[in-house]
Amino acid sequence: MSTQDILGLSSQDPGRVISFPASQYLHASTASPVPGAISTGLPRLDEAISQVSSDEPSQSSSEARLGGIPCGHVTEVFGPPGAGKTALAMSVTSNALCHGGKVVWIDTTSPLPKLRLKSMLKQNLDTAKSSDIDNLIYFRAQSLPHLLALLLHPPQGFPPENTKLLVLDSVSGPFPSYFLSPSELKSRLAQAKITDKSQVQWLMNRRWNVTSELANQLMKLAASRQLAVLLVNQTHTKIKGQPRATLGPLLAGGAWENSVYTRIVLYRDLPAVDDEESEMASRSVRYAEVLKKDGRVLTVRSDENIVPFTIDSGSLRGTDTTQPSCAVPQQPVEESFRAGGRKRKVEEIADSQDEDNSDEDFGWIDGDDAGLVEGPADDS
C-alpha cells in the first residue's frame, strides 16, 4: 500500500485538497516500508538515538546498524551558545547531501557558513561533487511572520521532491522579539489599562498558540513527506520551581513536547584540573546527550546516552573522554531554602568575603556547566 492510499488521497483527483487528522500522518509514517535515518557524523550518537532492541529479529544486520536522525519525525537540538548546535546540523546536512538527497536549510539568526559545509563535504567525499552542494535549498526568514508564512502557507513546490532533511536554525530565534515575558507583558497591559479579560487572556496565550501551530505543522510536514526535520532551539535558564538553576529549551510546552520525537542537548564540561594543557584540552570537548528518543523521555545523565566529541576543522570527531566528571548530586533541597523557612537575622549574615564555599550552599558545583541540565523544561 502506498503512502497516498494510507492517507486516503485519491489518485484520480490529485488537485483536491483533503484535510485529515494528525493520527493518520502518524499511521502513514509507521507504515512506510523504510523510513530511514540520517547520520549525525558521530557513530556513538547515532547508536544512542536509534538503539535497536534485541526482540526485533525481523530486521537485518544492515538495518540494525542504521542510526541517526530519524526520517518522518522531528528532532530537536538545544544547548548554550558555542556548544556546537550549528556544527551538528551541518554534519547531518553533509551526510544527507552525500547520499543524494536534497536539504532545505532555513535560518533565522545567522547565515549558513557555506565554506564550512563545503569542507565537510570534501571530508566525506574524496572529491566534492558539484551536484551535492546544488541540492541545498537555502531560505532566509528575516522575521517570525516570514517563518510562519513559509511553513504554514508554503509556496508551490516547497519542499521540493526528494527532500530528505529540513533544518531550521534557529526555530526559537524570532520569538523573543515578538513575545514579551509574562511578567513584562502584565506590566505593559497594566500601563495600557487593558482590563478586558478576554483580550488579556488572548494576549497571554498568543505565544503558546503560535508555538503549537508551528509544532503541529512541522510534525505533519515530517510525517507526510517522510523527511527528517532538525530544529535548533536556543536555551534559557529556569530557576522558579527548580531546586537549582536549570538549562532548558527556549521553546517548550505541551504541543511542542508532543511534536518532538528525539531531543539532544549539547553542552560543555569544565572539570577542575591542575595541568594547563589538560585544562585546554578538556575545554574543547563537548557532550551530546540524548534526552528523548522514540517520543519517550530518558533518564538524565545516563552514561549510554552521553557522547563526547570535538569539532576539528568544522567536522565532528568522537573522543574517548568519559562522562562529565562533575555531576550534580541528587540531594533534596535544604529546609532553610524552602518557602516559609526561618529567615536569618542580620547579625547571622556574614560578608561574602568571609564565607568560604558559599556557592555550594546554593547547590552550585564549581565549573560544572553540564550539571545545569535537568531535562526538558515545560513552561506551559
UniProtKB/TrEMBL annotation:
Q: Where is the RecA family profile domain?
A: 34-235
Fetch the Pfam families from UniProt: Rad51
Q: Where is this region: Disordered?
A: 315-380
User: InterPro entries from the entry?
Assistant: AAA+_ATPase (IPR003593), HR_Repair_Mediator (IPR052093), P-loop_NTPase (IPR027417), Rad51_C (IPR013632), RecA_ATP-bd (IPR020588)
Q: Name one GO biological process term.
A: reciprocal meiotic recombination
Q: Which SMART domains does the annotation name?
A: AAA
The cross-references to SUPFAM superfamilies, in alphabetical order and at most eight, read: P-loop containing nucleoside triphosphate hydrolases
Cellular compartment(s): Nucleus
Is DNA repair set as a keyword in this record?
yes
Q: What is the first-listed, main subcellular location in coarse terms?
A: nucleus
Q: Which UniProt keywords apply?
A: ATP-binding, DNA damage, DNA repair, Nucleotide-binding, Nucleus
Q: Where is the composition biased (Polar residues)?
A: 315-325
**Where along the chain is composition biased (Acidic residues)?**
349-380
Q: What is this protein called?
A: DNA repair protein RAD51 homolog 3
Native organism taxonomy: Eukaryota, Fungi, Dikarya, Ascomycota, Pezizomycotina
